[in-house]
Amino acid sequence: MSKNMKGRSRFLSALPLLAVLVLAGLLFFPAADGDVTVYVTNTGTRYHLENCSSLRRSKTAVTLEAAVRSGYEPCGICRPPELSASSSAARSSAGEGELYRVNKAEFSSSSLAVLSRMVKADVTGHVDGDTVRVRIDRPFAGLKVVETIRMIGVDTPETVHPSRPVERFGKEASDYTKSRLLGKTVYLAFDWDFRDRYGRLLAYIYLDAPEGPRCFNAALIQEGYAHAYTRFAFQFMDEFRALEEDARREKRGLWRSGP
Ligand SMILES: [Zn+2]
Questions:
Q1: How far, in Å, from the CA of 35 to the mean position of ligand 1?
Q2: Among all residues, which ones are annotated catalytic?
Q3: Is position 44 within any domain?
């Protein structure tokens, strides 16, 4: 065996050890910004979250860093993560025409709200406790003039299901929403998911009250008209859970004892 061959075989025998070290590195030092997975399409110019509605035709997983390096912009609908400001490739997408999203660290509570940055809408129809129809005069960023809103993070007892009976307290919850929202001007804020599988807009509904902005989704739970709906993650999940606990403890609405 020549000297050269010996060197190569020593290198080859060290390969498994190298592989183990690389794997360990991946396991113990995960997820810098650039390692986040986002999705692009064959023809698009934007990158997306996996569940974005504009990914119906094609979808290719890439790292966030690769997407930005290739010139893709963040989608305005699903609002995927952006590279941190320290990255030279990072671009700010803040500014006019952006939807007001609460899935950011600054919004630690539903009561922290800036109505002037939200989408203004008029409630034109009432469906049930957690669903209303609105008219948006100046729709943008994927919104339509007429939208059905499913309120995020709440679930009121069923009243309009075609095959199920009206659930206990369903009528009260439905009437409460109708009396508080129908005909009113409201302000819409959004979270990670923009629409549900029925195409309804998923939103937090805010009212402009003398004492400050009021999140109607939170009020529904607080007053005992709704459960906190935690099947899908949302920004105020912990807060809404606590509001439900409180309503149960105080036996408000749904949680009143008796039939
Ligand atoms: Zn998208």
A1: 18
A2: 150, 158, 200
A3: yes
Q: What is the pLDDT of residues 121-176, one digit of tens each?
A: 999 999 999 999 999 988 888 899 999 999 999 999 877 676 766 677 889 999 99
SS3 18: helix
Which residues are placed with Cβ below 5 angstroms of ligand 1, an ion? 48, 52, 54, 75, 77-78
- Ligand 1 centre and the CA of 26: distance in Å? 28
Question: Is residue 12 in some structural domain?
Answer: no
Kindly state whether residue 157 falls inside one of the protein's structural domains: yes
44-49 contacts: CB < 8 A, separation 24 or more?
44/72, 45/71, 45/72, 45/73, 46/72, 46/73, 46/74, 46/75, 46/76, 47/72, 47/73, 47/74, 47/75, 47/80, 48/75, 48/77, 48/78, 48/80, 49/75, 49/78, 49/79, 49/80, 49/192
Question: pTM of the predicted model, to two decimals?
Answer: 0.62
Can you read off the two tokens belonging to residue 49? 């979250």
Q: Write down the H helix ranges in 111-227.
A: 170-181, 216-222
Q: Both 89 and 119 in a single domain? A: no
